[in-house]
Specification:
Helix content is 59%, strand content 11%. It has six helices and three strands. It is mostly helical. Helix 1 runs antiparallel to helix 3 and helix 3 runs antiparallel to helix 5.
């Protein structure tokens, strides 16, 4: 749980401001007043950065952060609900993630699984090109919503 919350804080704080160096000649600067990345060309030559446009196009955006935080928020809710399932095996069984953690997972298994999912999701999103990242984030958000709503509908509450 602490890892998931730390990932949310890291993502939300690091994506809004800062500077990312592409090479010694180019860097991307993002500030709160302008979310569009800008190229700082300190010592340019056209041959020095043939892929700068590609890197700018695929830079992490504020919208990427919003989608990632939305996914991680749903993941935390799902984690809380799955923790309830783990604590009450006489009433509930896991169904959506049963292939990975079993129908009656231990709390340790739940903690490990959701920590891995949180870290892997962020890592995958960071490595994907912008269009694929957006699709990946929306698809995984779309996958989490029915699980969370379905659990809530049958009375599974969050416990941490």
């Amino acid at each position: 749980m602490k890892i998931i919350l730390a990932a949310i804080l890291l993502i939300s704080s690091s994506a809004f401001a800062g500077e990312m160096f592409i090479s010694e000649n180019y860097s991307i600067k993002i500030d709160l007043s302008n979310s569009a990345p800008a190229i700082d060309n300190t010592n340019s030559s056209d041959a020095a950065c043939l892929s700068c446009e590609h890197k700018i196009k695929n830079a992490w955006t504020t919208e990427d952060t919003y989608r990632e935080v939305a996914f991680l928020t749903l993941l935390v809710i799902d984690y809380g609900q799955t923790s309830t399932i783990a604590q009450h095996p006489e009433f509930y069984k896991e169904s959506v993630s049963a292939w990975a953690i079993g129908e009656h997972p231990s709390q340790e298994t739940v903690n490990t699984y959701f920590s891995i999912v949180a870290i892997a999701h962020y890592g995958i999103a960071r490595k994907l090109d912008a269009d694929w990242r957006k699709a990946f984030q929306y698809l995984t958000i779309g996958e989490k919503i029915p699980a969370v709503v379905g659990n809530a509908t049958i009375g599974i509450r969050m416990s941490f």
